[in-house]
Amino acid sequence: MAPRPVRRIPATARRRLGELIRDRRAALGLSQQAVAKQLGTDAGSLSRIETGKREPSLYQITRLSEILGVQPSRLLSVA
User: Fold this and answer.
1) What is the DSSP code (8-state) at residue 63?
2) Is pTM, for the whole model, over 0.90?
3) Is the pLDDT of residue 1 over 70?
4) Closest by CA position to 18, among listed 65, 44, 55
5) CB-side exposure of 1: number of CA atoms within 13 Å?
6) 33 contacts 43 by C-beta, under 8 angstroms
7) Of the four listed, 25, 40, 42, 76, which is most buried by Cβ atoms within 10 Å?
């Protein structure tokens, strides 16, 4: 059986997800650097997620939900 193709998040949904992450991070007074460190990545990668240029992995969505204090379903609902 052939593996199933990976579904990508549409660009508009990636942008909405990034805006939600950025807005929640800012509301908590957290810098990109601080969140990126907790996420195990660099600020540039987090910036690309926040601008919708990069799709976060499921692991990153789970960690971001923990860091930002929201349910993973809240992040996934915009994607």
Assistant:
1) H
2) no
3) no
4) 55
5) 3
6) yes
7) 25
C-beta separation of 49 from 18 below 8 A:
yes
Angle between helices 43-50 and 32-39 (to 10 degrees): 100
pLDDT digit string, tens, across residues 51-61 = 999 999 999 99
> pLDDT band for position 8 (50/70/90)?
confident
Q: Are 51 and 61 in contact (CB under 8 A)?
A: no
| 22-26 long-range Cβ contacts below 8 angstroms, 24+ apart | 22/50, 24/68, 24/69, 24/70, 25/50, 25/68
